[in-house]
Amino acid sequence: MRKQVSGIHHITAIVGHPQENVDFYAGVLGLRLVKTTVNFDDPGTYHFYFGNENGKPGTLITFFPWARGRKGEIGDGQVGITTYVIPTGALAFWQERLTKLNVSYEIIERFGEKYLQFSDPHGLKLELVEREEGENSQWEFAGITADKAIKGFGGAVLFSSNPAATGKLLTDVFGFEQVAAEGDFIRYRSPADIGNIIDIKQTPIGHLGRMGVGTVHHIALRAQDDEDLAAWQDELFASGFRTTTFRDRHYFKSIYFREHGAILFEMATDPPGFMVDESFEELGTGLKLPPQYEPVRDQIESVLLPFEVREPNID
């Protein structure tokens, strides 16, 4: 049987001030900060991971906060919209919550589903959609109960400079199934119950996006383990894509490649996960550094801006 990915592992974006980032994704959206570490390639920058109660692949959004970074520009070669899935019946709760927290939104329909679309404080485009699929998050925070909490990714909307080529990558290499076409979008589905739907915009924006605050850096798909990741590297090479060597991110291993529509993809292993250096109860509460940076911890901590996880004030 041809290889097939199960779905999205994580999405990584560049944002602004770390406190604003934490206030929105933990305070407003109620996601759990499951890991506080640094960008392994730029240790003077945080790397935050937000997800469900234990940071399960398919629930993870990660951020590089650049407090003084330049503003990016959304365009071709990027994830244009990140989609979150919520339990059936929870949309009215989220409309009320966003209204109380002064987050502007609009309601749109795509492929017969109703979406609540809005932006985070740094310009990332987000949306919420109700679906039965996927287990409920058990993380309850800031007035959000498990029957209302974000489950994880519904999927993503890709802005490609070559939509046909990007679609061919999804179907011919990764084993997604093309399931629908409507207006300017084609929908692809993987077998996972979460992080399983990718919509590709069929009309390119006409210019490449510019990396910076408010843009997605890359989208990562799931590999089962190190052996599966190596097999995917071989599969990509055979399909004409050049990948990086294995990168050890401590909580997973991964490879990167850029596809013909200019989108940067990563493939990341599910294990070992986030409890290799913290207990379940401690997740996200301490700054965790990979071994190579422990000798300079004091220096790193001196340049990182302080932040705290806190609940918003809701009238």
Write the layout of secondary structure elements.
Blueprint: E1 8-15, H1 18-28, E2 32-39, E3 42-51, E4 60-65, E5 78-86, H2 91-100, E6 105-110, E7 113-119, E8 125-130, E9 152-159, H3 163-173, E10 177-182, E11 185-189, E12 197-201, E13 215-223, H4 226-238, E14 247-248, E15 253-258, E16 264-269, H5 297-303
Parallel strand pairs: 1-4, 5-8, 9-12, 13-16
Antiparallel strand pairs: 1-13, 2-3, 3-4, 5-9, 6-7, 7-8, 10-11, 11-12, 14-15, 15-16
For the biggest β-sheet, the strand order reads 2-3-4-1-13-16-15-14
Specify the number of helices: 5
Task: Estimate percent helicity.
Answer: 10-25%
H-E order: EHEEEEHEEEEHEEEEHEEEH
- How many strands in all? 16
Kindly estimate the percentage of residues that lie in beta strands according to DSSP.
25-35%
Q: Give unreliable regions as ranges.
A: none
Tertiary shape: globular
> Biggest β-sheet: count, sense, barrel?
8 strands, mixed
Average per-residue pLDDT, rounded, comes to 97
Which structural category do the helix and sheet elements fall into? alpha+beta
Rg calculated over all Cα atoms: 19 Å
Distance between the termini: 55 Å
Concise synopsis of the structure shown:
With 315 residues, the protein is an alpha+beta fold. The protein is built from five helices and 16 strands. The chain has helices spanning 18-28, 91-100, 163-173, 226-238, 297-303, and strands at 8-15, 32-39, 42-51, 60-65, 78-86, 105-110, 113-119, 125-130, 152-159, 177-182, 185-189, 197-201, 215-223, 247-248, 253-258, 264-269.
